[in-house]
DNA sequence: TCGCCACCTAACCGAAGCCTTATCGCGACA
DNA sequence: TGTCGCGATAAGGCTTCGGTTAGGTGGCGA
C-alpha cells in the first residue's frame, strides 16, 4: 500500500472513472488501473466497481471502499501537509499550485499570477490546466491550492472579475442560412469539455462535432478564424487589438457576447494554505484587476504547446 | 516519501535512538538509518539529530522534524486503520497484536491468549516480544494493540493479576559471604533491559554484568541453575513443579520473592481497536485467571529460540 | 590515547513499484 | 451484429525501496 496507490484510488472515486483520473494525473490509463489493482489485491477488496457494469454509468464504491476512501483521502492530505510544513519551517518559498481552464490559462491568468508573485514575495507559483470536473477533485485532494474558473459548488468560491466571451471571425465573413451552427468552429482544447465556457457555447449552438476543430491554444484558433472560413470564441478584451487593426471582427447573436464570472475557488478557510489565502486577498486589489485586463500580458504561447490539457505535480 | 520511511522516523523519534527503532522493527540498524536518510533527503531537512553529538545523550528533533512527526504519526495510524476497516467490513477475522516482555511471553501470556482465542471467536492473535520502552512506542504507533506487562505511563493501564517472582537454585546451593551479588545469575533475554522485572532485580542486587549469563529463555536459565553454580529468577507458580520434585529450591532475601502486577495496556477507549477492548474485558473473567495460573500451559519452548527479543509485524 | 558506542555511508542485491504499449472482455447502442 | 467505450490484463523495462554486510567517523570515558 503506497501513497501513490491511495492517491489514485481517491481520485478515481472522486472523478468516477479510471480514465478521468489518468488524465488528471497525466499518466496512461493502465497505470491508474494497475495502481488500483495493486491496492485491491493488498486490501483484498474490489474497493470500487463499475456501476451498471457497462459504459457510462460511472463507478460505485464497495462498503469497504467507502470507508477506505475517507481514510485514504486524509492520508494524502497529510502527506502534502508534511511537505508544506517542512518548507515553511525552513523559510523556503511556499508553493502555490493553481489550476485553471485552458482558455483562461492562455489569457487572463498568467498576468494575474505574474503580478501576484511580484507583489507577494517568497511564494512560488505553478500553473496547471484541468477540466472543470477535475478542478474540484484536485482541490479536494490537495493536488492544487486554488482553482481559477467557474464557480465550483461545495468549495469556497468568490467572484473576482467579469469577462466577456465573444465570437470572432474574418471581417468579411457572412453568416448564411444555417446560422452559426453551420460554420466551422475553431476552438482551444477546452472545447470538448462540455462544462467549460467554450464547451457550453458549442452546446448552446448545437454545433456538430464535425464542425469543430481543436487548436493547441486560443491564439492559434483566432489565426485560423482570421484566415477565414470559420469562427472562434475569444475573451473579448484579449482580441481588442486585432479587432482594431481590422484583422478580426466580432459576431453577434442572441448568445454572444456572453458575460462570465471568474471565480477563485479553494478549500474553506481553515483548510486552505496560507499562500492560497494570500492569492484570494490579492485578487481583490486594484493591481489584480489591472493585470487581468491587460491584453498583451499573456505568457509566450509556446508554453502551451500540446498536450496542454494535462499537467501535474507529483 | 513512503509510509515505511515515515514509520521509521516516528519510531526513531519516539524511542530516541536508531538502534532501538531497528530492534523494535526487527531489522538491522543501517536499514533504519538509511530509511531515515532517504526521508531526510526527500524533505531536505535533518529532521532529527544527535543531541549532545555524543553517545548516550539521545536525539533531538529539528523544528521541521517536530511538525513532521505529528503528521507522520497520524499517517501511520491511518494506514493501520484503513486495513482494519477493510477487514472488518468484510467480516474477516480481526487482528489483535499483543506485545509482552520476554519473561511473560514464556510463562503466563501464551495460556492467557490461548484461552482468549478459544473464547472470543473470529479474532486472530499474534504475540510479539519487546522491551518496556519499546512497548509504549509500539502502542502509540499502532504497531501493537495491547501490551501485557508493567504499567505504562500515559496509556490506559489496568492491573490484571499479581504474580510473584522468586529466585531459584539447586537445593544444595549455599549463599556465601558475598551475598547474592557474588553468585552467577542465569537470566532470560530481558535481563539486559533495566526496566524489565528481571533487569530491575539485577540492578537492585548490584549484580555485575560479568556475573550474568543470558539464556534464550527462562526454562534454559532454570536448567542451568538446577545444574548448580548459580541462581535464576523465575515466576513462582511456574516452577512449583520443579520445586516439589526437589530439582530446584527457592531462595529468600530482603528483595525476593517480590510481588509484581501484570497490566493490560492499550490506547484510550476511543482510540483502541475492538479486539483490544475484548481482550481487556476477557482478562477480568475467572477463565482468564485460571489460564494464567496454570503452570504447564506454556507454548513449546522452541517458539522462543533466539532471537527472541525481535518482533516483526510488517 | 585507546577503545567503545552509536550513527552514518558504501556497495550490492532482490523485490516491488510504476510507467509504457498492446491486447482482451464486456455491456451498450445503432 | 458489428463496433464503440471503458476498464482489466499481459509483458517488458526502468527506477526505487528496503534489506544485508562491511567499513568509516566522532565524542566520551577509562
What report would you give on this structure?
The structure is a homodimer of 314-residue chains. Chain A has 12 helices and 11 strands. Chain A has 314 residues and is of the alpha/beta class. In chain A, the strands form 2 sheets. In chain A, strands 3, 4, 5, 6, 7, 8, 9, 10 and 11 form a 9-stranded mixed β-sheet that branches. In chain A, strands 1-2 form a two-stranded antiparallel ribbon. In chain A, a hairpin with an 8-residue loop joins strand 1 and strand 2. In chain A, helix 1 crosses helix 3. The radius of gyration of chain A is 21 Å and the shape is globular. Chain A binds a DNA duplex (30 and 30 nucleotides) through helix 3.
Tally of alpha and pi helices of chain A: 12
Overall pLDDT score of chain A: 81
Counting DSSP E segments of at least 2 residues, the number of strands of chain A comes to 11
Shape of chain A: globular
Please identify the oligomeric state. Answer: homodimer
Helical/strand content category of chain A: alpha/beta
Helix percentage of chain A: 40-55%
SSE pattern of chain A, N- to C-terminal: HHHEEHEHHEHEEEHEHEHEEHH
